[in-house]
Target: Threonylcarbamoyl-AMP synthase
Amino acid sequence: MKTLISSDVRLLANLIQEGKVVIFPTETVYGIGASTRSEEACLRVYEIKGRPKDNPLIAHFPSIEEIEKVCVLGDLGRKLLEKFSPGPLTLILKKKDKSLFPKELDTLAVRIPKNPLVREWIRLTGGPVSAPSANLSGRPSLTKLTDVVRYFEGKVDGILIAEEPSYGIESTVVSLVGEHPALLRPGSIESEELKIFLPDLVFPNPFETSPVLSLANVPLSPGTKYKHYAPTAQVILASTEEFIHSLEKGFDPKETAWIGFSLPKKVSTGNVLPETNEAVTKEGEGRFKEFDNFSLVSTNEEYASKLYAFFEVCDLKKIQTIICEAPKPGHGSEGIRNRLEKASRRK
Ligand code: TXA
Ligand code: MG
Model:
């Protein structure tokens, strides 16, 4: 199959209208999209990703008005979207338009991506565009065009070139359809910010589906029950102390990679690591440079934006173990911790 790789929003919107599959960037990660009005096209997305059929897709909209035409928004939903959209917030709402994919659910996950060009593209398709993250099911989501092309050229009809993802982890998912609003997937918009609007926000265990919260036997967020975000390498979530210790001894730097904030005062892992933080930052910026198996970050936001791309580099280099320092407590930690906990679960 020929893949049209282009920044021409009109051409790529035509593809969606023809029932084809197009990958596009959002501010979080790349999405692999099809018309929410075409079951056949949406099912092709599942096939291409190898995604389990019981895990529904997020519908991407250009505006709050378009969401309101097909879903019951309510005052709360509107307030949340006005505050956090366009941006990395997904709401689960009751459907008004029952013909939208997936037809068997009476709820729809909705979100408005941040990039104006992407919203323009969605508008031109007639919208909405249903899209899970663009990755093979179970693997980390993709945040770099080069990785998207490597995995999906020849398998999808189009790839929209626009601003690359900057947040780096998937959107925060909040359900407004249960008895209490529920945080189904942590992300860059954090529970503290949400609680200002949703004081009774509940937190279902992210590793289990909750029977109490299930709707007609459909787990509240089916995606939470699958292993996710994991590279081939074993991921280890380490405290700062463990992280520094692992740099000092005990791990073969040829088979190990590190991502985190800290460096030991004295590096003794041989000649793989540079001597100072400055050297790491300079050398570590490019991919496949000498110190690619060490990514030094300075904020949680930078950590999130680099994490998945780093996983990809590590797998390409056949790294066996990736040691990830826990995020800094406070803002930006919730989403990263959730992804690292999931990625580090034993296979
Ligand atoms: O940042 C993001 O959210 C990215 C970009 C492309 O928008 N998308 C993404 O999609 O991460 P995906 O499919 O990887 O994750 C969607 C999550 C899954 O956990 C799924 O179970 C949940 O949203 N979900 C979708 N529809 C739902 C529904 N009707 N009820 C409950 N959970 C739903
Ligand atoms: Mg995903």
Confidence is low (pLDDT under 50) at residues 208-219, 267-290. The radius of gyration is 20 Å.
